[in-house]
Amino acid sequence: MLLLSVMFATCNPNYDMIGMIDGTSPEIAQRFADSRHYSDSVGVVHMQMPADYRIFVCTDSHIDTTHYGLEKFIRAYKADTNPHLCLFLGDLINAQAHFDHADSILHLDGVMTNRTDTVFLTCGNHDIYFNQWHVWQQYYGSSTYWFDTYTGTDYQTSKLLDLFICIDTAEGTLGTDQMKWLKDLLNAKKEAGYRYIIVFTHTHLFKQDNSQGHTSNLSIEETYELTSLLTDAGVDYYLCGHDHSREVTGYGNVKYITVDSSTDAEPNPFYMVMEMGQHVNYEFISLLPRP
Amino acid sequence: MRKSILFLGLLLSFPLMAKQYLSLDGGHDLRGFGEEKYSLSLMAEYGYNRTWEHMGNVDVFAHMPVVKNVQIDARMQYCSANVLTGVIVLRPTFDLPVGQLFAETEVLYKGVLRNRMSDFCAALSVGWRFDYVSVQIGGFTRVMDSWDRDWHSEDKYETEPFNLLYRLEIFCRPQTNNWNISVGLSNKEDWQMERMWQPMILLGSRYDIDEHWRVHLDGQMKITGMFHLNATFYAAYLRAGFSYRF
Predict the structure, then answer these.
(1) Averaged confidence pLDDT in chain B
(2) Nearest CA among B157, B246, B168, B170 for reference residue B200
């Protein structure tokens, strides 16, 4: 079975088979350095929001020739009249040469004019296949950054709402530097008075079932370290994709949510909407029917 | 015709080869699995991974063939990254005309002191060993829990009900030889059980100085992201030590 999967994958031009031995994009230490360089140059985003707002979450659109799911999601996001922001958890495209196509859907009717607008992305493994990290970076700048929301008129004097941290796990590891950065950031922000802390990325931490075959997790040592760090720092949600199937689980006081894929190849694509307020509520919304 | 005679000859000789193989008490892997003598091993290990970075480990192995065809292995490791691991394996074996069948019940407890948490794995597997090849397949369950979990809150522990377990090991010499080198692919090694899509590459070697003393040199490498086609180096271990066979 494994041999058949490998043989099939070898024949599929969408799969970067060299990456099975050694990833073709720059590895995580370089991507982290590139991301921090970009994020430091543009500065941290502080978004003014009312206390109650919405987060639209989408992942794994795997854009190649069609874009029904992603377009439907972007239109739903645009049509929503509540204050909101959007997180995209990676695997925007399926393979190479589809960033133009995918990006045109993200920009639909003026949504997302640049990274500091209201769609925040991280990269997934498919986004960086075939040495495409630099292409991804030209479009979206950074895969490791943080931003927050506040309520009031001036950031310095206003009440902080929620902290969002984006990490790059496209290779199945945070790497040494990114892990240190995350630890330092969480330690620095632990007592800042945020209402909720949300970490979002591409790769899931746990493997509760075999829902999507051969998706890899982070290694077990990194799972220990990260789960413990998130618990100690009072993180509330870890949002990810990659697995293509929904999973809501918990470890310590952290809720781990794997959001369903939105790809057109998926029989049951979904996205998620989180209602941020005194309590957090979330629901999964179907992207069916397709046109 | 000549091929058929050769094949028939090989087939008939298998029971004899197997008998010789079993009677010579060669052992299975490089740490004495399969041997019918008690042994105690002590090893020192240097390790590196991207999360804990550099570390030094001390490993103790006890191999106990309690009755014929039933062995118990016990292992303890202290890792300087502040992690303690204990493993117990119960292994009945069944002699076959060709090779030997074995079953393993293994429990692994890892006290991750640095993160104040535990990782408990319980595995069931079966395997078939020959002189040059050993294959093993099974499944395991994992439970991860924090030592600081608040029992009066909604804090959770994590269970992974089923993971496939596999191990393929190839040896360059027959098990009866006084030295051997092996290469293996597995998602489990002596001190950890990884998720099924996270294989590790294992290298091993041993040399029997005399009837009692044996020296070992082993290595291991873990690559993350192989099966989502963005592989990168994650961890490596190098281990050296000796065994005393009673």
Answers:
(1) 85
(2) B168
